[in-house]
């Protein structure tokens, strides 16, 4: 990434992260700084190897102090000297949950979204599920362009009709069938109950027992530990 | 379909084959063919050295561009708020019935294209129908037939 090349040694930015004074490389985004200090910030459209895009808004943080605070997408926001940043304020948590609720309503079948729902303790989805298979995070498009140098897929349409496609909606000559787009897609991996699940929110997040464990005798999520699956009954409100 | 590459070349040259002029180039191409033929888009992409998918994205982004051939008569039925409350839906349905196509479609003989628009700025005259730049106010389902005859 070009940002690393412009980095100058020794020169650091000091700012307040959740009330603690911290230092960061001036080329970092708030998200990179927070990750460096070990904080878990949920993200969906961000990937270390790709240009940040700032569309999922899950990485929101509250910046500023007193009454003059605002929410920003931390993956796109630079670290600034003296900035006051909060990564887990009530406003941030409420907003993140709302965004995730909307995303899950769009793609209830995605395992990544469902696991994130357990992690953020999302308890209900009040919107009508759309059962779509894409949240328009743009990871596949950037992956194809920036890492695979293929530029085989992109966006078409606008607004609510926007979708990911190949040129002219036809099999694309540019595509090398490398599969990188599917590998990075947060909506491609389906949750244990598959696409036909009866509930919008994975029941694993509401029950004390992992549904997958009941079905397969083993919990199936090894990549991201599913918090709801290890919850004790008394933890569930 | 075959296209006249020299005609496209002259459009592209007018803008010095600049990538930033893609929209203007597409507008001129559309003016030439009344829509954006796939071959023409591919040619433009090649000449400007822009990924095909990006040209496709721009062509589908703007409502003014069409990838499907349009009819000689382009009928736009206003579905804006003012026209809607005055019954534009009935007018549209009558057009659909008479032409045997749905909004967005073109008749088989290539004569009519039926489309909806959101407010053409003549709300006091609603429901408004625009036929090839010609405005018809206070439309009713009954007037549809005579409008089609006139056209
Ligand atoms: S499989 Fe095709 S579309 Fe997907 S990243 Fe590879 S080249 Fe791009
Ligand atoms: S297909 Fe997957 S990776 Fe691509 S935009 Fe949609 S959700 Fe994101
Ligand atoms: S049942 Fe548990 S482990 Fe399986 S997808 Fe749902 S939350 Fe994850
Ligand atoms: S990760 Fe920042 S907006 Fe998606
Ligand atoms: S709503 Fe039809 S012209 Fe304004």
Describe this structure in words.
The complex is a heterodimer of chains A (237) and B (151). Chain A is built from 7 helices and 7 strands. Chain A folds into 2 domains: 1-132, Ubiquitin-like (UB roll) (Roll), CATH 3.10.20; 139-236, 2-Layer Sandwich (Alpha-Beta Plaits), CATH 3.30.70. In chain A, α3 runs antiparallel to α4. In chain A, β3 (60-63) and β4 form a beta hairpin. In chain A, the strands form 2 sheets. Chain A has a 5-stranded mixed sheet with strand order 2-1-5-3-4, with helices on both faces. Chain A has a two-stranded antiparallel sheet with strand order 6-7. Chain A is of the alpha+beta class. Chain B is of the alpha+beta class and 151 residues long. Chain B folds into 2 domains: 5-61, Orthogonal Bundle (Arc Repressor Mutant, subunit A), CATH 1.10.10; 73-150, Glutaredoxin (3-Layer(aba) Sandwich), CATH 3.40.30.10. Chain B is elongated, with a radius of gyration of 18 Å. In chain B, strands 2-1-3-4 form a 4-stranded mixed sheet, covered by helices on one side. Chain B has helices at residues 5-14, 22-33, 38-48, 52-61, 81-85, 88-99, 141-150, and strands at 73-78, 112-117, 129-131, 134-136. In chain B, β3 and β4 (134-136) form a beta hairpin. The mean pLDDT of chain B is 91. The A-B interface holds A 145, 151-158, 165-168, 172, 174 and B 38, 41, 51-57, 60-63, 67. One iron/sulfur cluster binds next to α4 and α7 of chain A. Residues 111, 114-115, 118, 191-192, 202, 204-205, 210-212, 219-221, 226, 228-229 of chain A line the site of one iron/sulfur cluster (SF4).
In short:
With 237 residues, chain A is of the alpha+beta class. Chain A has two domains: 132 residues, Ubiquitin-like (UB roll) (Roll), CATH 3.10.20; 98 residues, Alpha-Beta Plaits.
